[in-house]
């Protein structure tokens, strides 16, 4: 019986650590929505999962819209532009709306300004299209060449 009490104490301490970690890693808005007195980490996790699962489809629509409307002219550099595309790519994957490499590369070049028309032609001539990482690297080189 003493061993069970010790196991229970350890379990409760570990549960509290996990719960504190969850509280510390969510935004204040989400924290206010999930905070419950005498909660368990399992119940907290279920509330967080339900909150995000309920919003998955509407979040996917919102992210798709942002992805489609991302253009270089709204960023200070190609690096910032590509970072934003990559962030949106990751967020879309997280809501079960993954973006293929082909679509990502085509979006990257379609969002460029006219100053990059030569680069756009260069990418279009690749069959198959390069990976996003490769196209991004070439784009950053193109930008640095244009600046010089």
UniProtKB/TrEMBL annotation:
| Protein name as it appears in the record | Flavonol sulfotransferase-like protein
